Amino acid sequence: MKREWDLIEKGEYDVIVVGAGPAGVAAAINAGRQGVKTLLIEALGRVGGISTAGYMSHWTGTVGNKTYWEILERSNKKTGEDARSIYIDPDWLTVTYIEMLEETGVDCLLYTTVCDVLVEKNTVKGVVCCNKNGLTVYRSKVVIDGSGDGDVAYKAGAEYILGRETDGKMQPATLMFKIAGVDTERAVFPGSFETLVPTEKGELQALAKRLLPHPAGHVLLYRSPVKGIVTVNMTNAIDVDGTKAEDLTKAECICRKQMQPIVAFLREYVPGYENCYIIGSASLIGIRETRHFKGVRQLTEYDILEAKQFEDYVVYGAHFNFDVHNITGAGLDKTGVQHHFKQKQPYTIPYGCLVPEKIDGLLLSGRNISGTHLAHSSFRVMPICVGTGEACGVAAALAVKTGRKVRDITAKEIQKIIRR
Fold it and tell me: Which residue from 139, 137, 136, 158 is spatially nearest to 147, judged by alpha carbons?
């Protein structure tokens, strides 16, 4: 008699991508475009991760890699925005992702959690999933970890550090939500912690720090493609380990309880928000930082400050500030620099940052790539994550087609495709 917990073999792919956030979607699209059989696995019921289910307001930072610009142009065409507008409509962006995945022949499996990894002689050979079908096994030649937290790499035994090098602390979590009823002609849109907004009742950042329930206490408000609707980035949960279900649950509850006090604050103190009200909130909590994996190479904050142009780059034209949210409360951490970040030149990311040092058959895509805590505060943003995904998808396809290990693929080979 068959037991419900028996493993079910479901098939073999050339490339499996785990996690359908911007990095995972970009990886799957680019693997599919190179003609290899690709499967994208996602725990949620929609693709896009934090950019869609997370109600992200806009694309922060930038990157040269072409997949990002294609996503931007195609999604903006649906909303009627300028081709390079950075503001996000999560529903139209979801449809854009679906279309691009379908066009490239990628198989998608939603509502599916990867609960284990098949590893033989330090080489990843596939994944074990849990979903409505039971425990299922999918085998592959290459697995790309786009899970954000690096769940596949962790289960495969790849080396990592958790959080900040000095003490293991991690950036706070946020639950984004949207409000309507905003008079956008009069409204203010503080876009960074360093944006100060004087009003008749006082400066907004100072008022928020004094009046909102700790650890909330800052004002970040962003436009949307729809008139009168604003995305709010003001909930805050500290001392959260995003690799633990208990901490994710705690963060969800903390942030949801902050939403009504935040709306009351906006109505009372922020010009243009007198009649605002909540119309929706994210179904995915925003986790900024967890595991930093040890790769063949490591990107440091000095590489970013010097705008390093590595010969073995696979992500190019990357730029963002050191966006370190306060690890002990609201606002900007003392190590963070946003509006006043002086380094204006783009940097690159070498291929070795995407390759785990000791595990084969695996690539890192997104915020889990190899880098320091401070460097991560820059490359964790979505456009740069799309760049790492693009590179991983191409690298995985090259490995499959040539029968080589992913660590033996050269950056020059990847560059020929991503710069074509």
Answer: 158
Average predicted confidence (pLDDT) for the chain? 97
Quote the DSSP letter at residue 286: B
Contact (CB, 8 A) for 327 and 293: no
Contact 287, 245 (CB under 8 A): no
Report whether pLDDT(25) > 70. yes
For the chain, give the number of residues: 420
Copy the structure tokens of residue 108: 């998608």
Does domain 7-165+290-418 fall into CATH 3.50.50.60?
yes
CA distances from 413 to 8, 224, 296, 391 (A): 37, 39, 18, 11
Specify the amino acid at residue 222: Y
Instruction: State the amino acid at position 152 in one-letter form.
Output: V
Mean pLDDT of 175-196: 96
* Tokens 């595990």 sit on residue: 359
| Three-state secondary structure call for residue 74 | helix
- For residue 373 the two structure tokens come to 């805590």
> What is the rounded CA–CA span in Å between residue 36 and residue 171?
37
Beta pairing partners, 110: none
Strand (E) or helix (H) holding 383: helix 382-402
Partners of residue 237 on adjacent β-strands = 173
* Residue closest to 89 by CA, chosen among 44, 52, 54: 52
Rg (CA), the chain: 21
Name which of 57, 81, 73, 52 is nearest 229 in CA terms: 57
pTM beyond 0.70, yes or no = yes
Share of the chain above pLDDT 90, in %: 97
Pairs from 123-130 (Cβ < 8 Å, separation ≥ 24): 123/359, 123/360, 123/361, 124/152, 124/156, 124/359, 124/360, 124/361, 124/362, 125/361, 126/12, 126/16, 127/16, 127/18, 127/41, 127/152, 128/7, 129/10, 129/41
Q: How would DSSP label each residue in 280-348?
A: EE-SS-B----EEE-BSS-B-HHHHHTT---TTEEEEEEB--B--B-TTSSSB-TT-BSTT----S-EE
Residue 276 burial (CB < 10 Å; 0-12/13-18/19+)? Answer: buried
Q: Where are the domains of the chain?
A: 7-165+290-418, 177-281
Closest CA to 265 of 330, 199, 217, 195: 217
Q: Output the CA torsion 341→352→358→156 (10° steps).
A: 70
